[in-house]
Amino acid sequence: xxxxxxxxxxxxxxxxxxxxxxxxxxxxxxxxxxxxxxxxxxxxxxxxxxxxxxxxxxxxxxxxxxxxxxxxxxxxxxxxxxxxxxxxxxxxxxxxxxxxxxxxxxxxxxxxxxxxxxxxxxxxxxxxxxxxxxxxxxxxxxxxxxxxxxxxxxxxxxxxxxxxxxxxxxxxxxxxxxxxxxxxxxxxxxxxxxxxxxxxxxxxxxxxxxxxxxxxxxxxxxxxxxxxxxxxxxxxxxxxxxxxxxxxxxxxxxxxxxxxxxxxxxxxxxxxxxxxxxxxxxxxxxxxxxxxxxxxxxxxxxxxxxxxxxxxxxxxxxxxxxxxxxxxxxxxxxxxxxxxxxxxxxxxxxxxxxxxxxxxxxxxxxxxxxxxxxxxxxxxxxxxxxxxxxxxxxxxxxxxxxxxxxxxxxxxxxxxxxxxxxxxxxxxxxxxxxxxxxxxxxxxxxxxxxxxxxxxxxxxxxxxxxxxxxxxxxxxxxxxxxxxxxxxxxxxxxxxxxxxxxxxxxxxxxxxxxxxxxxxxxxxxxxxxxxxxxxxxxxxxxxxxxxxxxxxxxxxxxxxxxxxxxxxxxxxxxxxxxxxxxxxxxxxxxxxxxxxxxxxxxxxxxxxxxxxxxxxxxxxxxx
Amino acid sequence: xxxxxxxxxxxxxxxxxxxxxxxxxxxxxxxxxxxxxxxxxxxxxxxxxxxxxxxxxxxxxxxxxxxxxxxxxxxxxxxxxxxxxxxxxxxxxxxxxxxxxxxxxxxxxxxxxxxxxxxxxxxxxxxxxxxxxxxxxxxxxxxxxxxxxxxxxxxxxxxxxxxxxxxxxxxxxxxxxxxxxxxxxxxxxxxxxxxxxxxxxxxxxxxxxxxxxxxxxxxxxxxxxxxxxxx
Lengths: 623, 231
Description:
Oligomer: heterodimer
Number of strands of chain B: 10
């Protein structure tokens, strides 16, 4: 029976009257969930090494255990706000001959399998594999892992029981928060550390696996308690799921529509986007766009990462003994203390003599000796000026002396066998080259705002077909524009979440993307809405984007010029101030400042709309 | 209820509407007749603040309608298909409007009951977007939306064409009911004299933007009108 109920649940997702929209929502939710799962696993995997670096000398597990208490407390608060009642899921079966116990079990299974729990379990399993299993016995590791999972699931049931009470009496949240504050204060001011006590408990699961019976028993108890509670409060009104009935009954977006006026405008806009060909194709296009960064970022990081050529291996001493000697030549030996060089790189010599490889920086390499210095001996004709310099086999990498200046060419006139000792303090690798770094910043901002810009630049042109309705109905234009902004913000956040996939290339991309998100939310989205008030041509929702790509593509480009100019202005201002290296911070900061003045900036668009409303209306009436 | 003062509207130098003065009282049913291009739709669009007047103003309940929102609370209107959100189901469209006016579930159900006959079986629960309905059914959706919130003022531009005879009959009956029950002010334009004289007590004839007749309903006046249009 339980299996059938689960099957029905799946069908309710996949077989809905408005399949197109639903599948889209399904895909979006699916992608988001996969991204979330991906992060959970990644964070679990890398957390141990981060913890090791953070507090050196202590094992990651004990650090983890001492912080776990706070995590569970936070998760509890988070769940109170986020976790919902799954009770709606069984409403169809109440009147059918399905055993009450089966229904309640189904409800509880749904509670257990909510996405917060799944993400947490993925995270913990990944962490256990990386940090616990290598150091403890399998039994201990499993005891620890299942204990923690059991505690987290108890949390889930506890929330279930508590949430209804908090829902009817929000003031109940106050004592909970007060208790938490007291715990935190005690933690810092006295020796009564709850976290320490808790961490002893968590450690004991590792040391004495039999202890894990306790949380498992607690989980079983919580399960039965919740079961019993639902059994007692079986009717929808008891579960608090029958809200006051509203007009809404037909729409799939009833959740949004119950969120006030802005919510209903957002719902209307989403319907507009997903039920019409033109905006829908635009949406798909913006999805394809996310492939771009993989090329651009890759190219950038490949460029920044010099390729070190494979050297010729040989033993310096052996080679030196085989060198010919006569009166016309002498032996010149180089002994280079190279400082720290990148992994896999060799020190190369170049100079005006062919034996030194001529001026090709990647032709003749030195050999590493037992002291870690680089050496090689060459036979050179006497009396001719010899110049030489060092590299890592790549023109882009330059040797630096102890003052940080580029090491200049050195000269010697060989007369007798000589050993030249040279010390290189550092190497300059070509990271963050101005031009291409600018491109990376621009591209990142552009990709994060892309969907928002595409949608926002048309402002009410989307509504061109029913603009008269909007003007004559009791529509609050301010809130309508706000609704549009929220959709743009959501699009930017979505883009941001997807872009996070790329941080495996470099952690710098995280800061860059955060900065781009702020800039997109603060500046680009608001700016394009303002420009949108100058739109006078209605958008035909039915034609596909392809059919008018040429003409409209150019116009779209033109509309984005002011945004590009603004970004260029910021870039040149930074260059002029000599702050080019801080570009992500500058863009992020400007975005943040713009967000602080968000209301005022939005008012400019609203004012401009009021000023141009009749002109817009006239334009939209023309086909 | 609605007062017009020195209202003119010019397009490219030609005056398409010139109404020095007009007063429509609360509860009055006001019929606007005239041939194509007489300025009927222009007048309604000006009341609804869809276009800007060249000179003069329109007051609704004593407040200017231009660039203001207050009249939207109590004015329901349907001019043409630009009032329809074509990618919604009719139900969603009605729910959206009910939401804008903050109607309760009861009031909304009451509306659906009232319009049950008018919709016959072709509009609700059809799983058809408004854009997929026939012209006549689209018009029904628009008219029903105009009446949804039981407004004090109803403005309908050419409501009768495209409707089948039964629907025309039911619409006229319903407008009458609104008038009797809620003392609604009706503004209806038409080029069909018979329909408009059936619903409206006051008939105003427009020609090239100017009022040429302002009559009350009656045998004699009906004849006069028929003669006017017969030429």
